[in-house]
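Try it yourself: sequence plus glutamine, in.
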Amino acid sequence: MRDQQRRFDRREYLTLAGGAGVATTIGLAGCLEDAEGNGDDGNGDDEDDGNGDGEDVADDGENGTDDAEGETIVPGTAPGFEPFQMNVDGELVGFDIDLLEAVVAETEYELGDWEELEFDSLIPALENENIDVIAAAMTITEEREESIAFTEPYYSADQSVLVQSGGDVEADDLEDLEGLEVGAQSGTTGEGVVEDELGDDVDYTSYDNYVLAVEELERGTLDAIVIDEPVAESFAGDRDVEIAFTFETGEEYGFGVRQDAEELQEALSEGIAAVEESSEYDEITQEWFDE
Ligand code: GLN
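Structure, out:
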């Protein structure tokens, strides 16, 4: 039943995918509006704005500097990256959504309402305190660690190259992409692979959202996409695209937090360990992956 439900949800997601770019644009506009004047969300110091039950747990007296505990933390994500995060009929669902909710339930923090942004806007939103935690299948990289901090990893992935199903592109390794039109989502490690490994040897296009790139691939107006392997598999299951090959990167996803949010970072890492040790991690994995 659950599988049927999930397939149904995915089909619905596909029919909506054409509007994905519009949806993310609206999401971004909303965020910018908030940043401009409506400071009531995303800012971690709003702890005393009516949510009394969160504060009670904070007073455990364990640690005098423990003023972050019990606060509501605002999570941010970037839908369109199935099965980690996607928007189905206006509802945000996916592996990262369920996992962060389970992880935060292990801590003394309260989880606020999700903010949906473009992937490229997540780190700036975290730095601006519009959100407090990123849950977006974001790979832990040294470059990102110059501006933000990550929890312990919760998932590993490589990069895959997606091409049109039954199309002309025959590629077994990155060199075979030379001279072709290649796409990735802006600011991702997939984009990094194109830049680092192929540079000017390909005609590269950066997309706000991978869904838009996959649509170009289906139409045949783009030759290949570099994208995280689990998401490539998911698109290959739903769409007229297939994995040509996978390029090993061994990257690991972590939840992103601000560098000065050490207590939150530690609490979330402990929460990940607790969820992994319980049956919850496997349950969430089963729900979102055919494993
Ligand atoms: N894991 C990739 C990255 O961190 C892609 C993440 C995403 O597109 N949501 O860059």
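One thing you can check immediately is this: The first helix runs from residue 2 to 17.
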